[in-house]
């Protein structure tokens, strides 16, 4: 069974480690990659795309050196190769205008403030990855037991 890729980015290793720990239950069916900068994410996405891998979701912090999370997710949103990739902004320092830009320009699917609740984050990831699978036209049956069953039922109607 192929695994779908989820990329997490935060410039603070301790925050990134906390996210990865919370996402551990998903590693049975998702490949969780971690990066510490926007440029590292973009390079990884190029590499995974070149290998024919699916990038289902990018989870990004907002305040990072170099490119912000909104800038990163906007770049991902504008890249035709990743038009189906879902996006989550996970931050504790976004302003009101940052949040508006994230929704309107970066096309984020979900916004979480730090500290997040692990169960809610996991439920959101399951929902978004399930949507990605159907949007990309992938055979959902190999992951069926892991998916958001409500989304599956809605998409099969």
Automatic annotation (TrEMBL):
InterPro entries given in the database record: Bact_response_regulator, CheY-like_superfamily, Sig_transdc_resp-reg_receiver
Pfam families on file: Response_reg (PF00072)
Keywords (A to Z) from UniProt: Phosphoprotein
Sequence positions bearing 4-aspartylphosphate: 61
Gene Ontology biological process terms, A to Z: phosphorelay signal transduction system
PANTHER family: RESPONSE REGULATORY DOMAIN-CONTAINING PROTEIN, STRESS RESPONSE REGULATOR PROTEIN 1
Protein name: Chemotaxis protein CheY
Organism the protein comes from: Vibrio renipiscarius
């Amino acid at each position: 069974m192929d695994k779908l890729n989820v990329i997490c980015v935060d410039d603070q290793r301790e925050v990134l480690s906390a996210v990865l720990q919370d996402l551990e239950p998903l590693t049975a069916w998702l490949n969780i990659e971690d990066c510490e900068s926007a440029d590292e994410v973009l390079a990884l996405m190029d590499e995974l795309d070149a290998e024919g891998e699916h990038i289902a979701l990018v989870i990004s912090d907002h305040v990072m050196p170099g490119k912000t999370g909104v800038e990163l997710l906007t770049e991902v949103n504008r890249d035709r190769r990743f038009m189906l990739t879902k996006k989550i902004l996970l931050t504790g320092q976004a302003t009101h205008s940052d949040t508006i830009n994230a929704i309107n320009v970066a096309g984020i699917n979900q916004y979480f403030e730090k500290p997040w609740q692990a169960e809610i984050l996991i439920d959101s990831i399951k929902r978004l990855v399930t949507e990605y699978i159907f949007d990309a036209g992938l055979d959902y049956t190999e992951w069926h037991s892991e998916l958001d069953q409500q989304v599956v039922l809605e998409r099969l109607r």
